[in-house]
Amino acid sequence: FVIRGYRLQQFLIFSVTIFATTIIFSIPSDPPGMGTWYPIARNDLLGAEYRSITESIRSGKGFGNPFQVESGLTAWMPPMLPYIQATIYFFVDDDVSKVIEIILLVKAWVLIFSGMIVCWAFDREIKVQGKGYWLIPVVVVLLLYSSEFHHCFLETHDEWLLMLLVDLIIIGAIKWQASEIQTSVKRRFVGLDGWIGWGTLGGLSALSSPILGFVWGLVSVVYQWRHPKRLLFAAFLSVLIITPWTIRNYIVFDKFIPIKSNAGYELWQSQCIDTDGVLDVSSLQHHPWVWDNPERKMYRLLGETKFIESKTRLWKAAAFSAPLEVIDKLSARFCAVTFSYTPLHRETEQYRWSFLYHRIIYALTLLATIAILLRHPKPLTPTISICLLILSAYFLPYVLVSFYERYAIPMLPVKALLISFAVGMNTKKSVREDG
Fold first, then answer.
1. Which of 59-66's residues contact partners 24+ apart within 8 Å by CB, and which partners?
2. CA distance 120 to 122
3. Spatial separation of the C-alpha atoms in residues 2 and 165, rounded to whole Å
4. Which of 139, 243, 278, 318 could form an SS bridge with 336, CB 3.0 to 4.6 Å?
């Protein structure tokens, strides 16, 4: 899209707001408002296990040591972010403060880019040039960013990378659908709507998050099944990109591990440690990364493969012995994913106004989805269908396995689109009725 006219105004609002917030709150080591508005700032986190692995790479010990101690090679986390961070470490001579500042600035640009993608898709869907309509997606995006202030501005993890990949999946899927409708448009090989571009995006998404790889695969099948050659080519290219990592895992662990290895641990953590199935600080205290706890000692004693296998056996035993408890925790995760905001720091509830604000904004996505399904003419447009499919495919594994609030952050652009669509369609209908 071209940044001009009201699109330029949208860009300027996002840029000024997000960069000003980043400079005031993100970069300082002691941001204003800590302890009053938000309990903790973790911009030095750099992804927790991701940071530990990154520093292991930089020290010449390879992709390993995910828990801040010597423990050997690992497949605990996907490989994309540690290698990106290791590259940044290399260019700044391992100055962690500079790495943090670069990541924060990149994150700010991703937040701006995501906002502009929401505005671009909103324009394509609503097709109304009425005065003030361009402000709808801007306001919605900024509301969502403010409700997730801690994760958007006070913590460095993998959200920025996953959100960027979600943006690219949205662009590629929408452009692919548009070129399907415009049959005169010649199919390209490159670009996000081309075979090579789309296939490459699939491989990079999977190496960043297996769940994003699943989202990409489902979107590909649903929207490209009429073109099996294109679908197979894109799938082949994505698998080709993933294969070297899978081979590496097989050589290191003598086991088929396509991307990451810790699914069994996360199942055990949600079922056997957490009380309601939605992770919080108390349950994460058992995580091997947090401190030198019994789990870390067991991980080092058994090795990664046997450690995860032991947790998988415990999860299976607990699930078979108490199936109703499994259903209860699945239900709790479904509610936490769809409408019931459940903070990681449960003491956050003491900050009543911010907690209430977050809970209201969090529920808007479900309300917007219901409004769209009830009031939108059938069938749904491709853009709305794409958003609903991405949202459902992304959250399904988290409902089944493990979830806490941070995992929802990459879906902010999709949530903003659905809320903007709902507001835009209802406003458009009211304008027509008044006219």
1. 66/288, 66/289
2. 5
3. 21
4. 278
How much is the CA Rg of the chain, to the nearest whole Å? Answer: 22
Q: How many CA atoms lie within 13 A of 58 on its CB side?
A: 21
d(CA 212, CA 202): 8
Candidate from 189-193, 235-239, 307-311, 388-392 with smallest mean pLDDT: 189-193
72 SS3 class: coil
If 0-12 CB within 10 Å is exposed, 13-18 middle and 19+ buried, where does residue 355 land? middle
Over residues 138-146, mean pLDDT: 97
Q: Is the separation of the CB atoms in 339 and 399 below 8 Å?
A: no
Structure confidence by residue, pLDDT tens digits, 66-103 = 998 999 999 999 999 999 999 999 999 999 999 999 99
Q: Cis omega (within 30 of 0) on the bond before 294?
A: no
The residue-averaged pLDDT of 336-351 equals: 82
**Distances, alpha carbon 76 to alpha carbons 166, 280, 304, 394, in Å:** 22, 20, 8, 20
Contact present, 84 and 262 (Cβ < 8 Å): no
Q: Which two tokens stand for residue 18?
A: 């997000």
- Tell me the CB-side half-sphere exposure of residue 112, using CA atoms within 13 A: 23
Contact of 156 with 44, CB cutoff 8 Å: yes
Token pair of 185 as six digits: 């448009």
Kindly tell me if the per-residue pLDDT of 435 is higher than 70: no
Cβ atoms of residues 423 and 136 within 8 Å: yes
Which residues lie closer than 8 Å to 353 by C-beta, 6 or more apart? none
Work out the angle at residue 107's Cα, subtended by the Cα atoms of residues 249 and 91, and round it to the nearest 5 degrees: 65
Residue 155's beta-bridge partner residues?
42
Farthest-apart Cα atoms in the chain, separation: 73
**Contact partners, residue 103, CB within 8 Å, separation at least 6:** 46, 85, 88, 156, 160
Hey, what are 54's tokens? Answer: 């990154």
Report residue 127's pLDDT band, with 50, 70 and 90 as the boundaries: confident
Among all chains, which residue has been given the structure tokens 């390993």?
A: 64
Taking a C-beta distance cutoff of 8 angstroms, is the pair 144, 415 a contact?
Answer: yes
3-state SS of the chain: helix, strand, coil percent to 5? 70, 0, 30
Taking each helix axis from N to C end, the angle separating 195-208 and 80-91, rounded to the nearest 10 degrees, works out to: 90
pLDDT in tens, 171-209: 999 987 766 555 444 555 556 667 888 999 999 999 999
Residue type present at position 413: P
Cross-strand pairs, 38:
34
Residue 180 CA, distance from chain mean position: 28
User: For residues 367 and 360, what is the distance between their CA atoms, to the nearest angstrom?
Assistant: 10
